[in-house]
Every structure is written in structure tokens, then in C-alpha cells.
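Thread title: Can someone regenerate the structure for this chain?

I was given the following input by a collaborator and told the matching C-alpha cells would be attached. They weren't. Posting the sequence so someone can regenerate them.
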Amino acid sequence: PVKTEAVTRAEMTSYIETNARLEAERWVDVVARTQGLVERLQAEEGDEVHQGATLLQLEKRELALQVDQARVALEGARSTHERSRSLHERQLISQEEFENTRQQLQNADVNLQEARLQLEYTDVRASIAGVVMVRNVEQGDLVRTNDVVFSVADLDPLQARIRIPEKRMTQVRRGQEARVTVDPAPDRVFDARVRMISPGVDPASGTVKVTLDVPSDDLLRPGMFATIRIVTDRRQDVLVIPKKALLLETDEDDVFVVREGKAERVRVNLGYVDGDRVEVLSGLADGDLVVTVGHQGLKENAEVRVVGAEGQR
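Best answer:
Regenerated them for you:
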């Protein structure tokens, strides 16, 4: 008893296969621009945020008082400057004294702007649109200047950076199609495109860096281990057989074909290999039945009985 499959026609591709970790196109650490206690959290990990969205608010009262103090100082400096202008016009004070009051006014104005800016910094905002990947603070924490409080990433598209042998670099071009698979979904194939090709070759490894764009999908995440296949050629309507039909006892490419109830050993010339399928260039015809189960130990011209899956049990 043997099990067979018919030779069929299908599309076959040639590809370069390698592995890489998926990365976000942009990953930005959001830092605090001023110091203060976390008064309110307005974003959580996984939230989608737009550029400029408030992620957290720091306690504002102390900085608001500093703004009021700077405003009062500015008003005082302005009054002093106006009085000195009047005195200077009547030549009752020197030019140097007048210039000093003008400089004091300018300094007071700068101090008010700085105080307002520090108050504005109590609203920590997203610098890019994307997804909140990391939150490093809790409500009530003391945040210091330049502390990283959030990380936001742009996940559309994701990217994969791979290295290919320099001898195959002529087979890759910008915009070329690629396929991506990940372990959590081994039966799904995600589309990708070659975005950039490094102009140089790494002399240590003899490889070229290639960057691919992988369109966003709810399943794909930065850091995932992915298998990347860059399609280098495509052939339409070619003869295809399962790889498991090939005999393993010899170095030649042979299969058994069932004809008139007997097993006939046939040598085949193979082309592209794609997963569990192989392309047949010669030796078989469309519709031939090749043995896929039971060919171990099978002899030339042996009588065989083709059975279904249930007959194998």
C-alpha cells in the first residue's frame, strides 16, 4: 500500500531566507523637562497617542508661584525703567544708570518667560504619534529633570534589519517583495518590502545590511523573532510535487510514479524549492501520481495499491 499525490501546476519562487528581530521604525524616550511630583497619569502602556498628547502632569503649585513672582519682578523693573527714562530725558541720571535699568527690565522679562516655560513643562507630552510602550513612573513619584518617564514607538510600519551575503546583493533591490513569518503564528505569512540597502559591504562578515518595512498588524510586536524571505524570482504555472516524494537513499533526485498499478522509478530535474514543495523541470508530466508515503524500501516495478489517509492507519 502507498499513498500518492498528483503532480500539479503552481507558482514557485526563489528567495533569500534569514532571521531578524522586528523593530519599531521610531522609538522615542520621553523625558521630564522639569522636576516635580507626578500628580496625574494620563496614558498607560498600549495606549495610542498623538503627537503633543499629555502623558502625565506634574504638581504645578510651586512653579505657578514662581511665575507670579517673576511677573511681579517684571512689573517692578518696568516701573523703575520708566522712571529712569523720565530722569534720563531731564539729564538727572547718567546714560549708564539708564542702561542698567533697561538691562534689569530685559532680565526680568527673560525670568518670567523661563518660569512660564517651567510651568508648561509640568505637562509631559508625547514627542511623536505612536503607541505607549513603557511607563516608568507611578502617581506620586518624584520626577527629576531628564528622567525618562515614558517610551513611545511608531509601529506602522515595523522594520526588520537583516544581512545578506554580498554575492547575492545583486538579487535585491528597493521595493522588492518579501515574506515574514513569526513563531506565534507559524501558518500566517505577512507581506514586507525592501526599504533600504546599505551602499557598503561589511568587510568582517562579507554581508550587506538590508532594511525592510513590515506593515503593522495586531499580532506583530517589536522584538519578535521573525523569519524573512526576500523573493528574488517568481515562476508561474510550473510543475510542482511535495518534497516528501523525493527518495533519500541516493544522491540523485528520484521519485516513484504509479503507472498501471506498478511503481516506476523516475529521475527528475528540480528547480526552486519553496517550503514543502519543489519545482520539477523535467521527468514528470502534469497529473502523474508520485508516491509520498510508502516509498521506503519500494522496488522498481513492484505492484502497489493506492490507499487514502484512512488506509494508512
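The first strand starts at residue 3 and ends at 6.
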